[in-house]
C-alpha cells in the first residue's frame, strides 16, 4: 500500500492573525484539513471511501518566520462506505489537490467567521480594528478569491519511509543545531532555504541579531497542552484498533509483531523502542541509570542561633 504526503498551508494574512490566536487557529487548521480530506475522499466521484490520516503541525518557515501548516500522512485508500471492502486509490494519485484547496479555503473561512462571531479571536496593533464585524468581513473578502496552497508530494517509498519521516519530523523544533553556523558579536548566523529561488541559489546564509533570533524562535512555542500530532478517520484513537483489524482482514495482511499484538500473559515484557531523530534507526539501550537520592543539607547545630 502507498502512503501519501499532503500539506495544507495558511495564507500570509491568516498567519498574521494566527500569531495572537494560536490555540483557536491551529485547532481550526487541524480540524478543517482533516474534514477536507475525509469529505473529498468519501465523494464517489473521487475515492468513495472512509480514510485515515495522521496530521503533524509545523508553524515555521526556513527563516523562522511564522508559517503555520500541517503535514498529513495518509494511506492510499480507505474502507468503502458500507465497510465491506478496501478501496485503493489510483497508482501515484491520491486526491485532486485543486479540489482539496477550494474546499479547504471555503471551510476554513466559514469556521474563521464563526469564531469571530463567537468572540473567540483577539486582535492587537495594526489588526485591532478587525474586532468590528464589518471590518473583519471586508478584510476576509480578498481571501475568498486567492489561491490557498494545498499540495500532495509523491507517495512515500513504503511503510519504512513513513516511519523514517515520522521519526525525523514529528518532534522537531523550528531550527536544528546542524543549521547553526555561528554565534558572535554580530548575532546568530544560520542556514536557510529560499523556496522562491531555484537550484543551488536556494541555500543561503542569514544573520540575525540575538534578540531577533530569539523572538523568531519563541513565536513557535505552542500553547500549553496543545497536541501537535493528531489522528483522524480510521486512525482516530477511539476506534483505531477495531478499524485496523477490519482493514487487515480485507487486505489479507498479517499484523507485524508489536507490544499490542504480543501475548504478555506469561509475564514477558517488551523493551521500549527508541528511534534516532536523525537517521530513523532503532536505538539500543546500553545502560539504564537509576535516579540517585537527593542531596540533603547537613543537620543544623543545636546550639546555633
From TrEMBL:
Stored Pfam families:
Y2_Tnp
Q: What keywords does the record list, in alphabetical order? A: Plasmid
UniProt xrefs under InterPro entries: transpos_IS91, Transposase_32
Instruction: Name its GO BP terms in alphabetical order.
Output: DNA transposition
GO molecular-function terms, A-Z:
DNA binding; transposase activity
**Where is each Transposase IS801/IS1294 domain found?**
52-241
From the record, give the transmembrane residue ranges. Answer: none
Report the domain of life of the source organism.
Answer: Bacteria
| PANTHER family per the UniProt record, alphabetical | ISSOD25 TRANSPOSASE TNPA_ISSOD25 (PTHR37023:SF1), TRANSPOSASE (PTHR37023)
Q: What is this protein called?
A: Transposase
Amino acid at each position: 500500500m502507498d502512503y501519501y504526503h499532503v500539506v495544507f498551508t495558511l495564507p500570509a494574512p491568516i498567519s498574521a492573525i494566527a500569531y495572537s490566536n494560536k490555540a483557536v487557529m491551529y485547532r481550526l487548521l487541524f480540524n478543517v484539513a482533516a474534514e477536507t480530506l475525509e469529505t473529498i475522499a468519501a465523494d464517489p466521484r473521487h475515492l468513495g471511501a472512509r480514510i485515515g490520516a495522521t496530521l503533524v503541525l509545523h508553524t515555521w518557515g526556513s527563516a523562522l518566520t511564522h508559517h503555520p501548516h500541517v503535514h498529513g500522512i495518509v494511506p492510499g485508500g480507505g474502507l468503502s462506505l458500507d465497510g465491506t471492502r478496501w478501496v485503493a486509490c489510483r497508482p501515484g494519485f491520491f486526491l485532486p489537490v485543486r479540489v482539496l484547496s477550494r474546499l479547504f479555503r471555503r471551510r476554513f473561512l466559514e469556521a474563521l467567521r464563526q469564531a469571530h462571531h463567537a468572540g473567540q479571536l483577539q486582535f492587537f496593533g495594526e489588526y485591532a480594528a478587525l474586532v468590528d464585524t464589518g471590518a473583519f468581513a471586508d478584510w476576509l473578502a480578498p481571501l475568498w478569491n486567492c489561491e490557498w496552497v494545498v499540495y500532495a508530494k509523491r507517495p512515500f517509498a513504503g511503510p519504512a519511509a513513513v516511519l523514517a519521516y515520522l521519526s525525523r519530523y514529528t518532534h522537531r523544533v523550528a531550527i536544528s543545531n546542524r543549521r547553526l553556523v555561528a554565534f558572535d558579536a554580530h548575532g546568530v548566523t544560520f542556514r536557510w532555504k529560499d523556496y522562491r529561488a531555484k537550484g543551488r541559489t536556494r541555500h543561503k546564509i542569514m544573520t540575525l541579531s540575538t534578540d531577533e533570533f530569539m523572538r523568531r524562535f519563541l513565536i513557535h512555542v505552542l500553547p500549553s497542552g496543545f497536541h501537535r500530532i493528531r489522528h483522524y478517520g480510521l486512525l482516530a484513537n477511539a476506534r483505531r484498533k477495531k478499524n485496523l483489524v477490519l482493514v487487515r482482514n480485507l487486505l489479507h495482511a498479517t499484523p507485524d509483531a508489536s507490544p499490542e499484538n504480543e501475548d504478555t500473559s506469561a509475564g514477558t515484557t517488551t523493551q521500549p523502542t527508541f528511534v534516532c531523530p536523525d537517521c530513523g534507526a532503532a536505538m539500543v539501550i546500553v545502560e539504564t541509570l537509576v535516579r540517585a537520592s537527593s542531596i540533603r543539607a547537613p543537620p543544623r547545630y543545636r546550639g546555633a542561633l
